[in-house]
Amino acid sequence: MNKLTRRTMLAGATALTAAALAPAMMPMPARAAAPMAGKQAAGFYRYKVGDFEINVVTDGAATFPLPDQFVQNHPKAEAQKALAAAFQPTETVTVPFTPIVVNTGPKFVLIDTGYGPEMHAKTKGRVGQLPANLAAAGIDPKSIDTVIISHMHQDHVFGLRTADGGLAFPNAEILVPALDWAYWMSDAEMNKLPEGYTKSVYPGIRKTFTGLENKVTKYEWGKEIIPGFTTIATPGHTPGHTSFVVASGSAKIFVQSDVTNIPHLFLRNPTWQVMYDVDPLKAAETRKKFYDMASAEKALIQGFHFPFPSAGYVEKDGNNYRLIPITWNPVI
């Protein structure tokens, strides 16, 4: 029996190297370089909650220069430090957009709709990917029975329309928070906001819903709006911003919508105020209440702006929190 020593290993390695080099010394036919793919595979992921099947379907992600006031109440340098600590670029920020489709058995329920075709064109396909990824996941938009809107920001409602202005989900009832409907349809509220909102945000939201009034049902907080879907009051991001408990049997998830924007900034630092919050102080108060509840219950959270597949658990870390993402599973 040969004894394995450092000398025999080195001798074996030398022999293997020589054998490997021998064919390389012979002329080889030229090969064309393989083209770069330049894009990801279809973005969807599935997991079970009781008897419900959760389809996480990305609408894409936007990357843009980090605004000076992305965190309204802290210097840009502090935001950059937090990004660096999370191994993220410090001069840009990437915000994902992630609707979900819940197959309850009897119904397909979509929570939020993404940015829609206009943003898809503006971003050269980086955002507005929901229709393509629904198709890849084998979900026909005509099969969506209910669309639940968590709040009436563009990245949650513009996807209700197709490029020609038609209905993206023609057979669906649309459920919207009553408080948000009142807010976004109010001229008085519109005139209180900065000029950028009144010139782009408000008109776009109203245009999206024009002609849909007979398909819209306004919902309240603390109610089961369809079987298995209960609303949670999480105001601040918008006046009517809503999260959900989606439950099947003894299993449940919290769908947090926009309780926080990108988690390595605003979940990690719950008092930080993102520039998109209508009422930043209320939003920070909401974050603490929501994450105290979710961490105490060890509940799985689905987050619209979490990194794909946008689900994980929240753990308290002193006065702050940290996100523990779910582990990818090859089976459902």
Helix content: 25-40%
Number of domains: 1
Estimate the strand proportion. 25-35%
Q: What letter string, H or E per element, gives the SSE order?
A: HEEEHEEEHHEHEHHHEEEEEHHEEE
Strand numbers in spatial order across the main sheet: 1-2-5-6-7-8-9
Q: In angstroms, what separates the terminal alpha carbons?
A: 49 Å
The largest pleated sheet is described as: 7 strands, mixed
Please, what is the CATH homologous superfamily?
A: Ribonuclease Z/Hydroxyacylglutathione hydrolase-like
CATH fold name = Metallo-beta-lactamase, Chain A
Distinct helical segment count: 10
How would you sum up this structure, described in words?
With 332 residues, this protein is of the alpha+beta class. It has one domain (42-325): Metallo-beta-lactamase, Chain A (4-Layer Sandwich). 28% of the residues lie in helices and 25% in strands. It has a seven-stranded mixed sheet with strand order 1-2-5-6-7-8-9. Strands 10-11-12-13-14-15-16 form a seven-stranded mixed sheet. The longest helix has 19 residues, at 6-24. It starts with 5 loop residues before the first helix and ends in a 7-residue tail after the last strand. The mean pLDDT is 91.
